[in-house]
Amino acid sequence: MTSPMPMVTLTKTLDVKRLYRVSRRRGMKFNMLLCWCIGKAASLVDEFYLLPEQGRLYKYDCLAINVILNNRDGGINSCDVPYSDDLEKFNVDYIAITRSASITCQSTFADDAMVVGTSAMTSTELDCIVNQYTDQFCNPMVMWGCYRKGWFRVTLPVSFQFHHVQMDGGHAARFLEELQKVIKTI
Question: For the chain, which ranges sit under pLDDT 70?
Answer without folding.
Answer: 1-5, 131-137
